[in-house]
Amino acid sequence: RGAISFRDVQFAYDPARPILKGISFDIPAGHTVAVVGPSGAGKSTLSRLLYRFYDIQDGAITIDGQDVRSVTQTSLRAAIGMVPQDTVLFNDTIGYNIRYGRIDASQAEVEQAAQIAQVDQFIKTLPDGYKSMVGERGLKLSGGEKQRVAIARTILKAPPILILDEATSALDTRTEQDIQAALDEVSKNRTTLVIAHRLSTVIHADEIIVLKGGTIAERGTHSDLLAQN
Ligand code: ADP
Ligand code: ADP
Protein backbone atom coordinates (compact mmCIF):
# COMPACT_ATOMS: atom_id res chain seq x y z
CA ARG A 1 0.00 0.00 0.00
CA GLY A 2 1.05 3.59 -0.62
CA ALA A 3 1.64 3.81 -4.39
CA ILE A 4 1.27 7.37 -5.66
CA SER A 5 0.55 8.55 -9.18
CA PHE A 6 0.38 12.09 -10.61
CA ARG A 7 -1.08 12.37 -14.15
CA ASP A 8 -0.78 15.72 -15.96
CA VAL A 9 -1.44 17.52 -12.73
CA GLN A 10 -2.06 21.24 -13.15
CA PHE A 11 -2.40 23.69 -10.35
CA ALA A 12 -2.41 27.48 -9.91
CA TYR A 13 -3.33 29.69 -6.98
CA ASP A 14 -3.82 32.49 -9.50
CA PRO A 15 -4.98 31.37 -13.00
CA ALA A 16 -2.56 33.85 -14.56
CA ARG A 17 0.39 32.19 -12.86
CA PRO A 18 0.43 28.36 -13.04
CA ILE A 19 2.56 26.67 -10.38
CA LEU A 20 2.42 23.10 -11.73
CA LYS A 21 2.06 22.80 -15.51
CA GLY A 22 1.20 19.16 -16.10
CA ILE A 23 3.25 17.06 -13.69
CA SER A 24 3.33 13.28 -14.12
CA PHE A 25 5.19 10.70 -12.07
CA ASP A 26 4.69 7.39 -10.32
CA ILE A 27 6.05 6.43 -6.95
CA PRO A 28 5.94 2.71 -6.19
CA ALA A 29 4.73 1.73 -2.70
CA GLY A 30 7.51 1.87 -0.15
CA HIS A 31 9.83 4.12 -2.15
CA THR A 32 11.45 7.27 -0.83
CA VAL A 33 11.27 10.20 -3.22
CA ALA A 34 12.82 13.60 -2.68
CA VAL A 35 11.20 16.51 -4.49
CA VAL A 36 13.82 19.23 -4.82
CA GLY A 37 14.04 22.53 -6.65
CA PRO A 38 14.51 26.24 -6.07
CA SER A 39 12.41 28.08 -3.50
CA GLY A 40 8.99 28.80 -4.97
CA ALA A 41 9.18 25.88 -7.44
CA GLY A 42 6.06 24.31 -5.97
CA LYS A 43 7.44 21.60 -3.70
CA SER A 44 5.18 22.42 -0.77
CA THR A 45 2.23 22.92 -3.09
CA LEU A 46 2.78 19.49 -4.63
CA SER A 47 2.79 17.81 -1.23
CA ARG A 48 -0.36 19.66 -0.15
CA LEU A 49 -2.20 18.46 -3.27
CA LEU A 50 -1.57 14.88 -2.25
CA TYR A 51 -3.68 15.13 0.88
CA ARG A 52 -6.12 17.53 -0.77
CA PHE A 53 -5.30 20.60 1.23
CA TYR A 54 -5.85 22.13 -2.21
CA ASP A 55 -7.67 20.54 -5.13
CA ILE A 56 -5.95 20.22 -8.49
CA GLN A 57 -7.46 21.99 -11.49
CA ASP A 58 -6.63 19.38 -14.10
CA GLY A 59 -5.19 15.88 -14.28
CA ALA A 60 -5.45 13.25 -11.59
CA ILE A 61 -3.74 12.14 -8.42
CA THR A 62 -4.25 8.56 -7.33
CA ILE A 63 -3.20 6.59 -4.28
CA ASP A 64 -3.16 2.83 -4.84
CA GLY A 65 -5.15 3.42 -8.02
CA GLN A 66 -7.87 5.42 -6.28
CA ASP A 67 -8.48 9.02 -7.30
CA VAL A 68 -7.93 11.17 -4.20
CA ARG A 69 -11.12 13.08 -5.04
CA SER A 70 -13.15 9.91 -4.46
CA VAL A 71 -11.59 9.20 -1.06
CA THR A 72 -13.04 10.69 2.13
CA GLN A 73 -10.91 13.15 4.10
CA THR A 74 -10.92 10.72 7.01
CA SER A 75 -9.37 7.89 5.03
CA LEU A 76 -6.95 10.28 3.31
CA ARG A 77 -5.76 11.43 6.72
CA ALA A 78 -5.42 7.84 7.86
CA ALA A 79 -3.37 6.99 4.76
CA ILE A 80 -1.08 10.03 4.85
CA GLY A 81 1.12 11.18 7.67
CA MET A 82 2.12 14.80 7.25
CA VAL A 83 5.11 16.46 8.84
CA PRO A 84 4.54 20.13 8.06
CA GLN A 85 7.16 22.88 7.68
CA ASP A 86 6.38 24.36 11.01
CA THR A 87 5.16 21.76 13.44
CA VAL A 88 2.93 23.11 16.19
CA LEU A 89 3.34 21.34 19.53
CA PHE A 90 1.48 21.53 22.81
CA ASN A 91 3.38 23.18 25.61
CA ASP A 92 3.65 19.88 27.36
CA THR A 93 6.32 17.20 27.40
CA ILE A 94 7.53 15.60 24.18
CA GLY A 95 6.23 12.31 25.56
CA TYR A 96 2.78 13.88 25.75
CA ASN A 97 3.12 15.38 22.28
CA ILE A 98 4.02 12.01 20.81
CA ARG A 99 1.24 10.26 22.73
CA TYR A 100 -1.37 12.79 21.72
CA GLY A 101 -3.80 11.40 19.20
CA ARG A 102 -2.93 7.82 20.10
CA ILE A 103 -5.00 7.71 23.24
CA ASP A 104 -8.69 7.13 22.62
CA ALA A 105 -10.46 8.97 25.43
CA SER A 106 -13.75 7.21 24.69
CA GLN A 107 -12.24 3.93 25.83
CA ALA A 108 -12.16 2.47 29.31
CA GLU A 109 -9.33 3.60 31.58
CA VAL A 110 -7.67 0.19 31.44
CA GLU A 111 -7.53 0.39 27.65
CA GLN A 112 -6.15 3.92 27.78
CA ALA A 113 -3.47 2.83 30.21
CA ALA A 114 -2.55 0.02 27.83
CA GLN A 115 -2.30 2.52 24.96
CA ILE A 116 -0.10 4.83 27.00
CA ALA A 117 2.17 1.92 27.94
CA GLN A 118 2.41 0.99 24.26
CA VAL A 119 3.44 4.52 23.31
CA ASP A 120 5.98 4.70 26.13
CA GLN A 121 7.45 1.42 24.92
CA PHE A 122 7.63 2.91 21.44
CA ILE A 123 9.40 6.05 22.68
CA LYS A 124 12.15 3.81 24.09
CA THR A 125 12.81 2.50 20.58
CA LEU A 126 13.34 5.95 19.05
CA PRO A 127 16.79 6.95 17.78
CA ASP A 128 19.17 8.31 20.41
CA GLY A 129 18.45 11.92 19.46
CA TYR A 130 15.01 11.63 21.05
CA LYS A 131 15.91 10.13 24.38
CA SER A 132 17.08 13.35 25.94
CA MET A 133 14.07 15.22 24.52
CA VAL A 134 11.22 13.13 25.88
CA GLY A 135 10.88 15.03 29.16
CA GLU A 136 11.34 18.47 27.55
CA ARG A 137 8.45 20.80 26.91
CA GLY A 138 7.37 21.32 23.31
CA LEU A 139 7.72 25.08 23.08
CA LYS A 140 11.41 25.02 23.98
CA LEU A 141 12.42 22.97 20.95
CA SER A 142 13.99 24.22 17.74
CA GLY A 143 12.16 23.87 14.40
CA GLY A 144 14.16 20.78 13.50
CA GLU A 145 13.50 19.14 16.88
CA LYS A 146 9.80 19.84 16.49
CA GLN A 147 9.89 18.11 13.12
CA ARG A 148 11.50 15.09 14.76
CA VAL A 149 8.62 14.93 17.23
CA ALA A 150 6.15 15.13 14.35
CA ILE A 151 8.01 12.31 12.58
CA ALA A 152 7.89 10.19 15.74
CA ARG A 153 4.14 10.74 16.00
CA THR A 154 3.82 9.61 12.42
CA ILE A 155 5.99 6.51 12.85
CA LEU A 156 3.66 5.50 15.64
CA LYS A 157 0.61 5.93 13.41
CA ALA A 158 2.42 3.95 10.66
CA PRO A 159 0.53 5.39 7.69
CA PRO A 160 1.34 3.92 4.24
CA ILE A 161 2.49 7.38 3.10
CA LEU A 162 4.53 9.99 4.91
CA ILE A 163 5.06 13.51 3.56
CA LEU A 164 7.82 15.61 5.02
CA ASP A 165 7.80 19.26 4.06
CA GLU A 166 11.18 20.83 4.62
CA ALA A 167 11.63 22.93 7.73
CA THR A 168 11.56 26.64 6.92
CA SER A 169 14.41 27.30 9.32
CA ALA A 170 17.89 26.07 8.51
CA LEU A 171 18.75 22.87 10.35
CA ASP A 172 22.07 22.17 11.98
CA THR A 173 23.98 19.09 10.84
CA ARG A 174 23.17 17.16 13.98
CA THR A 175 19.43 17.76 13.62
CA GLU A 176 19.56 16.79 9.94
CA GLN A 177 21.28 13.55 10.90
CA ASP A 178 18.67 12.84 13.56
CA ILE A 179 15.86 13.51 11.12
CA GLN A 180 17.54 11.27 8.55
CA ALA A 181 17.83 8.51 11.17
CA ALA A 182 14.14 8.91 12.00
CA LEU A 183 13.27 8.77 8.29
CA ASP A 184 15.38 5.65 7.78
CA GLU A 185 13.32 4.10 10.56
CA VAL A 186 10.13 5.12 8.72
CA SER A 187 11.24 3.68 5.38
CA LYS A 188 12.05 0.35 7.06
CA ASN A 189 8.30 0.00 7.68
CA ARG A 190 7.73 0.04 3.88
CA THR A 191 6.24 3.50 4.11
CA THR A 192 6.17 5.59 0.93
CA LEU A 193 8.10 8.74 1.73
CA VAL A 194 7.70 12.01 -0.12
CA ILE A 195 10.20 14.61 1.00
CA ALA A 196 9.93 18.18 -0.23
CA HIS A 197 13.36 19.16 0.59
CA ARG A 198 16.44 21.04 1.18
CA LEU A 199 18.12 18.48 3.41
CA SER A 200 21.60 17.78 2.14
CA THR A 201 21.16 14.08 2.77
CA VAL A 202 19.06 13.26 -0.30
CA ILE A 203 21.29 10.25 -0.89
CA HIS A 204 18.89 8.02 1.02
CA ALA A 205 16.11 8.65 -1.51
CA ASP A 206 15.37 5.98 -4.11
CA GLU A 207 14.58 8.74 -6.55
CA ILE A 208 14.92 12.50 -6.85
CA ILE A 209 12.44 14.68 -8.74
CA VAL A 210 13.70 18.14 -9.65
CA LEU A 211 10.91 20.73 -10.05
CA LYS A 212 11.64 23.86 -12.05
CA GLY A 213 9.38 26.35 -13.79
CA GLY A 214 6.26 24.27 -13.14
CA THR A 215 7.60 21.09 -14.77
CA ILE A 216 9.86 18.19 -13.87
CA ALA A 217 13.28 19.32 -15.04
CA GLU A 218 15.04 16.10 -14.14
CA ARG A 219 14.41 12.88 -12.31
CA GLY A 220 16.50 9.88 -11.41
CA THR A 221 18.64 8.34 -8.74
CA HIS A 222 21.24 10.40 -6.99
CA SER A 223 24.01 8.96 -9.19
CA ASP A 224 21.93 9.46 -12.39
CA LEU A 225 21.62 13.15 -11.60
CA LEU A 226 25.30 13.48 -10.70
CA ALA A 227 26.24 11.83 -14.00
CA GLN A 228 24.10 14.28 -15.98
CA ASN A 229 25.49 17.40 -14.33
P1 ADP B 1 8.50 28.20 1.19
O1 ADP B 1 9.19 28.83 0.04
O2 ADP B 1 9.38 27.99 2.39
O3 ADP B 1 7.72 26.95 0.83
P2 ADP B 1 6.33 30.03 0.92
O4 ADP B 1 6.71 31.46 0.94
O5 ADP B 1 6.07 29.40 -0.40
O6 ADP B 1 7.42 29.25 1.74
O7 ADP B 1 5.04 29.79 1.80
C1 ADP B 1 4.94 30.12 3.16
C2 ADP B 1 3.47 30.13 3.54
O8 ADP B 1 2.81 31.28 2.97
C3 ADP B 1 2.71 28.92 3.00
O9 ADP B 1 1.78 28.50 3.97
C4 ADP B 1 2.02 29.41 1.75
O10 ADP B 1 0.80 28.71 1.55
C5 ADP B 1 1.79 30.88 2.05
N1 ADP B 1 1.96 31.70 0.85
C6 ADP B 1 3.06 31.78 0.08
N2 ADP B 1 2.88 32.63 -0.93
C7 ADP B 1 1.64 33.12 -0.79
C8 ADP B 1 0.87 34.06 -1.52
N3 ADP B 1 1.34 34.68 -2.60
N4 ADP B 1 -0.39 34.33 -1.08
C9 ADP B 1 -0.87 33.71 0.00
N5 ADP B 1 -0.19 32.83 0.74
C10 ADP B 1 1.04 32.53 0.35
P1 ADP C 1 8.39 25.65 -2.65
O1 ADP C 1 7.86 24.72 -1.62
O2 ADP C 1 9.07 24.93 -3.79
O3 ADP C 1 9.25 26.74 -2.11
P2 ADP C 1 5.65 26.56 -2.82
O4 ADP C 1 4.85 25.38 -3.24
O5 ADP C 1 5.66 26.94 -1.39
O6 ADP C 1 7.15 26.37 -3.35
O7 ADP C 1 5.22 27.83 -3.64
C1 ADP C 1 5.16 27.85 -5.06
C2 ADP C 1 4.67 29.20 -5.48
O8 ADP C 1 3.29 29.36 -5.09
C3 ADP C 1 5.42 30.36 -4.84
O9 ADP C 1 5.53 31.37 -5.82
C4 ADP C 1 4.52 30.78 -3.70
O10 ADP C 1 4.67 32.15 -3.41
C5 ADP C 1 3.14 30.49 -4.26
N1 ADP C 1 2.20 30.13 -3.19
C6 ADP C 1 2.39 29.19 -2.24
N2 ADP C 1 1.31 29.11 -1.43
C7 ADP C 1 0.42 30.02 -1.90
C8 ADP C 1 -0.89 30.41 -1.50
N3 ADP C 1 -1.49 29.83 -0.45
N4 ADP C 1 -1.50 31.39 -2.21
C9 ADP C 1 -0.90 31.96 -3.26
N5 ADP C 1 0.34 31.64 -3.70
C10 ADP C 1 1.00 30.68 -3.03
UniProtKB/TrEMBL annotation:
List locations, semicolon-separated: Cell membrane
Q: Which residues form the ABC transporter domain?
A: 4-229
Going by the entry's taxonomy, the superkingdom of the source organism is recorded as: Bacteria
What family name appears in the similarity comment? Answer: Belongs to the ABC transporter superfamily.
Q: What is this protein called?
A: ABC transporter ATP-binding protein/permease
Native source species: Rhizobium alvei
Q: Which residues of the full protein are shown?
A: 361 to 589 of 619
